[in-house]
């Protein structure tokens, strides 16, 4: 389950960045908002479970992980437009059927915001 290592890494980065900005104190971070691409190779439910485990004993213990799913978007060279393919298993333009190897979005694992207690 590589989601646990992702959760640990995520928590370590948040702690380091928050400490550098002197924003972190016990219970200060209430929620972490994460953008997770459907093509990232990360299982959302496994990451949520792993996050809870990885937070134990850290300053993020008790915080929530809010995940925003980012759809797969590819660039179709034939249509010269960004499109959402029919599925992650069929990466082609839904309009013209041309294979579309250029992924515009959908691979993200990105912290977008932190909710910090006042």
Give a quick summary of the entry.
The chain is α+β, with helices and mostly antiparallel strands and 118 residues long.
Secondary-structure map:
Layout: H1 2-20, E1 29-37, H2 44-55, E2 64-70, E3 73-76, E4 81-83, E5 102-105, E6 109-116
Parallel strand pairs: 1-2
Antiparallel strand pairs: 1-6, 3-4, 3-5
Overview of the molecule:
It is a single chain. With about 120 residues, the chain is an alpha+beta fold. It contains 2 helices and 6 strands, in the order αβαβββββ. A 3-stranded mixed sheet has the order 2-1-6, covered by helices on one side. A 3-stranded antiparallel sheet has the order 4-3-5, with no helix packed on it. The chain is elongated. The chain starts with a helix and ends with a strand.
Order of helices and strands: HEHEEEEE
CATH architecture assignment of the domain at 2-71 and 106-116: 2-Layer Sandwich
**For the report, how would you describe the main beta sheet?**
3 strands, mixed
Instruction: Please tell me how large the radius of gyration is.
Output: 18 Å
């Amino acid at each position: 389950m590589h989601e646990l290592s992702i959760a640990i890494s995520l928590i370590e980065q948040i702690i380091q960045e928050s400490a550098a900005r002197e924003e972190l104190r016990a219970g200060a971070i209430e929620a972490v908002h994460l953008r997770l691409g459907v093509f990232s190779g990360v299982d959302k439910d496994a990451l949520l479970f792993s996050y809870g485990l990885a937070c134990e004993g850290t300053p993020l213990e008790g915080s929530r992980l809010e995940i925003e799913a980012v759809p797969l978007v590819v660039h179709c060279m034939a249509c010269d437009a960004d499109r959402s393919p029919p599925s992650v298993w069929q990466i082609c333009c839904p309009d013209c059927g041309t294979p579309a190897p250029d992924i515009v979005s959908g691979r993200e694992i990105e912290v977008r915001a932190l909710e910090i207690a006042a």
